[in-house]
Amino acid sequence: MHPNSGKIRLDRYLSEQTSYSRNEIKEFIKRRVVTVNGETARLFDMKIAPGTDAVSIEGNAVEYREHVYLMLNKPAGTVCATRDELSETVLQLIPENLRRKGLFPAGRLDKDTEGFVFITDDGDLAHRMLSPKNHVEKLYYAELSEPLSESAIELFASGMTVDGGEKCLPAKLTFPDPSDRKKVHITLCEGKFHQVKRMVHAAGSEVVYLRRIRIGGVTLDENLPLGAVREMLHKEVENIIAL
Ligand code: URA
To answer: Which domains, from first to last, does the chain contain?
Structure first.
C-alpha cells in the first residue's frame, strides 16, 4: 500500500504496524494513550492516513512502514525460527519498536552459528533471496579443527559431494590469513542443511566456529554487537539480492 493511497481505521493501522493484539490496541485507545497528530484518539474506527498522520502510543511514535527489513547479528544459542519451546528465537531479540506481526528470519543459521540473519515481513523479497535459481551469495567465516590445504580450493570450486551423496554447487574457498589455514572464508550460492559444516567435513576437517558475514551485496555491520538488531537502509535492502 502506498502511504497516501487511502485512509484506514486507527485500530487496523496499529494492528498492522505493531506486534500488539487487537485487544491490547483497544485497551490503549480506551486508556486514552493513543494520539493522532497530537490529539487524543477516542474512537477505534477513526480514519487516519498512513504515512501522513502522526500516530503514537504512550508518547512513542508508531511510524508507517509498508515492510520491515532488519539486520540481526545472531549470537550462538538462539534459533532461526518464529517459535521454539526450548530455545530463545531470533525474533525475541527484536526490540519492541521494531516488532510487528509477520516477521520471520529469511533463511536459517544453525543454533551454534553467529552472524547476519535477515529478518523481514516481506515474503516476496525473502522468496527471491532464498530461491535457488537466484544464486544469492552468502559469505561465511569459519575456524576449523585441521588446516585445509591449497588443493581444497579446487575441491570446493568443483562442486563437491557431501555426506549423503548430495551434490553442491561450486563454492569459493579462500584463506583470509594465508599463514593460518584453519581460518577460511567460504562463499556459497545455495543453502543446504549444515552446508558449510558438511563441505568442510568432506574436505577432511571440522568447523569449530562459524559466522555469516555477508548476504548478497550486504555485509554484516561491524558496529552491530552480537544479539543486536537494526533496521536496514533502503540501499541495503536493494542489495540483499545483488548477485
Ligand atoms: N552452513 C552451516 O553448516 N551452518 C550454518 O549455520 C550455515 C551454513
So the answer is: 8-61 (3.10.290.10), 69-131+223-239 (3.30.70.580), 137-215 (3.30.70.1560)
Angle at 162 (CA atoms; ends 158, 167), nearest 5 degrees: 55
Q: What is this structure's pTM?
A: 0.90
Distance of CA 139 from the midpoint of ligand 1 (Å): 11
- Catalytic residue, candidates 110, 112, 177, 221: 110
Q: Return the bridge partners of 209, or none.
A: 143
| Active-site annotation holds for 110 | yes
- Nearest atom (ligand 1) to Cα of 110: 6
Expressed in angstroms and rounded, the spacing between residue 127 Cα and the centre of ligand 1 is 19
In ligand 1, the atom with minimum distance to the C-alpha of 113 is: 6
Per-residue pLDDT of the chain (243 residues; tens, 9 = 90+): 444 468 999 999 999 999 999 999 999 999 999 999 999 999 999 999 999 999 999 999 999 999 999 999 999 999 999 999 999 999 999 998 899 999 999 999 999 999 999 999 999 999 999 998 899 999 999 999 999 999 999 999 999 999 878 999 999 999 999 999 999 999 999 999 999 999 999 999 999 999 999 999 999 999 999 999 999 999 999 999 875
